[in-house]
Amino acid sequence: MGVCGQRCLAPGNHFETKNGNVLTPSYQLISGSLGEKIVNYCGEGSINILFDEIKENELMLCNGRVLPDKSRIGLKSRYAVLWDFFIEHIPSKLSFVIETGSLCDLYLNGIKIDDHLKKERFWGIKNGRIDIASFVHKGDNRLLMIVETPDWEISHKIPFIYLCGDFLLEDRKIIKSQRGINPLPWNKQGYPYYSGDASYYNKIEINSDFRKAVINIDTRDAVEVSINNNQVGKRLWPPYELDITGFIKKGSNEIKLEVTSTYANLMGDKIDNGINRAPQIFLFE
Asked: Domain 21-166 has what CATH class?
């Protein structure tokens, strides 16, 4: 049986994620006397005034969720961290997903928002979500977190939080989303931190007769293939090939690739997620 044709899915895939898009934080610790002042007195009206007092040398960049070595924060102590982010387009739905265990207070643009927290399980029982679309504005936005360390020796980390909503990212700026995407890794197309389930949709035209058809997918993630609304099968590891003879037909066909990635990019690692190039369909005579 010889190969009688080869097709590649074209650019311009329709693309959907299961849970919108995400932006992970870049924390800065407020050190010195100003940090203590913010921690000890956080009336809403005073926060923005205190922000005006912040000097560059009082901000210490954190390594992900790890406090700087020079921070010297003791047991059962409170500290303040900032996260500044930029919004070019405000999506209709935008929320913080956060772990709440050691969180004391949460302010967004000077407004206390932790009272709006709704408990919701994501990766543990001490998780929650806050809808923030009404608290943000175009341009620079600032999140302030007041956190308390435990009263026993432990490797403490800043609570995990991320922004979630219908948007794209461009140099960490939140911009308007779009449904089109090329058959390439999604982390290189505006979804650098998204992890989980996402689907590529495309159409392909088969013009020749064939006896057998095989699809080959270049990915490192788990993938499920559906053709013309019929589930073909799943592949969790190489080779990412499936016999699609009984599913594809001569004429127009709809292809759906549902990819499930690891949580690596959400947790700070940088790897390619999704498909690495256009899937290939081989036709045999």
From this structure: mainly beta
Range with the lowest mean pLDDT among 48-52, 71-75, 83-87?
48-52
- Indicate the pairing of strand 173-175 with strand 78-87: parallel
pLDDT at residue number 48? 67
Q: Strand, coil or helix: what is 177?
A: coil
* Mean pLDDT value across residues 25-40: 82
Residue 239 pLDDT level (bands cut at 50, 70, 90): very high
3-19+179-284 and 21-166 share one fold: yes
Phi, psi of 121 (to 5 degrees): -85, 130
Domain ranges of the chain: 3-19+179-284, 21-166
Q: What is the DSSP string of 104-119?
A: EEEEETTEE-GGG-EE
Rounded to 5 degrees, what are φ and ψ at 204? -140, 140
Q: Is 18 exposed, middle or buried (0-12, 13-18, 19+ CB in 10 A)?
A: exposed
Q: Distance between CA atoms of 93 and 27, rounded to whole angstroms?
A: 23
What is the pTM (predicted TM-score) of this model? Answer: 0.88
The whole-angstrom separation of Cα 186 and Cα 82 is: 28
- Mean residue pLDDT of the chain comes to 88
The answer for residues whose C-beta is within 8 angstroms of residue 121's C-beta and 6 or more apart is 127
How large is the average pLDDT for residues 136-154?
90
pLDDT for residue 7:
60
Beta bridge partners of 86: 140, 173
Check: CB of residue 178 under 8 Å from CB of residue 248.
no
* Encoded tokens for 112: 């206390």
Tell which CATH classification among 3.90.180.10, 2.60.120.260, 1.10.3720.10, 1.10.760.10 matches the domain 3-19+179-284: 2.60.120.260
| Average pLDDT over every residue of 241-255 | 94
